[in-house]
Amino acid sequence: MSIRSFIGRQIHRIGWNYPVVNLAVKVADPVDYMVRLMNGNRHIPRLSIRVRSVGITLDLGGSSFLQHGKHFADLLRTYAKLAPDSKVLEIGCGCGTNAFAVAEILDDGNYVGMDIHHVSLEAARGNSRLRRKCFQFELLDIRNNEYNPKGQNLATEYVFPYPNETFDVVFLISVFTHMLTDEVINYARQITRILKPGGRCFFTAFLLDRDSSFKFPFRSQEHSYMKSGSPEICLAYYSDFLLSTFAENGMSCSAGPLWGSLHGGRSETGPQDILVFTKQ
């Protein structure tokens, strides 16, 4: 392992909100800006904002940030039938990792992103390229002990502020990895409600099916998690629970599981697995 990779892994384990790391990435922002300028990536958020969405990496210039979004955009086209005229909701949009990629596909005004993190959301709202696409970004003020402890709404009760049958595609990247059992059940209900018939829900999650439960040694209800006392940091589910939960709401699995790198699958989209459901 190279020194660069080793340092990157150690920083990632600490997390971007660790004070020393937070300061370090802010200090690196001017260097990141110069690299973005040289690479033609001036339009994407600065490093200290990007790490809030994709984790700590040594991605000066943002090339990996853009490539990460492109991989998911390609998967959305293949498995969720993403097309220019699709009406799309991304739950957990961050600062726009995937919004920049789907902007190359979608017609103007066809994307709504929601997130619980104010700083990331404001970066997306203020981005000139995403504004020209008339993309919308809205606060998802859900209480989460790890990421939004002062949130005003409970995920178990939240009603998404959209009429029935509004969207063709709803997708969530690394969202259910931070949500407890009853919260996922409510989100499945709400996602089904706002999808049009034939609409698709595409999401990533850590699945326990392939003998990965040892990585998540603690269990409550249907979720297993890594850290005692802090389940929302990272948790996982058996696919049977997710399949049955969506089935109870009239959605069938149309693709997956597509295994992530944790299970020996494709590495470019990360360690999480993918499931896709279609509304009947």
Characteristic terms for this protein:
three-stranded antiparallel β-sheet, alpha/beta, 280 residues, single chain, 10 strands, Rossmann fold, 2 domains
Give the rounded overall mean pLDDT.
Answer: 87
CATH homologous superfamily designation of the largest domain: Vaccinia Virus protein VP39
In the CATH classification, which architecture of the largest domain applies? 3-Layer(aba) Sandwich
What Rg do the Cα atoms give? 18 Å
The count of domains is 2
CATH topology of the largest domain: Rossmann fold
CATH class of the largest domain: Alpha Beta
N-to-C CA distance: 48 Å
Task: Flag low-confidence runs.
Answer: 1-16
Give a structural overview.
The chain is α/β, with parallel strands linked by helices and 280 residues long. The protein folds into two domains: 62 residues, no CATH class; 214 residues, Vaccinia Virus protein VP39 (Rossmann fold). 35% of the residues lie in helices and 19% in strands. It has ten helices and ten strands. The strands form two sheets. A seven-stranded mixed sheet has the order 3-2-1-4-5-10-9, with helices on both faces. The chain has a three-stranded antiparallel sheet with strand order 6-7-8. Strand 4, helix 9 and strand 5 form a beta-alpha-beta unit. The longest helix has 17 residues. The radius of gyration is 18 Å and the shape is globular. The relative contact order is 0.10. The N terminus is likely disordered.
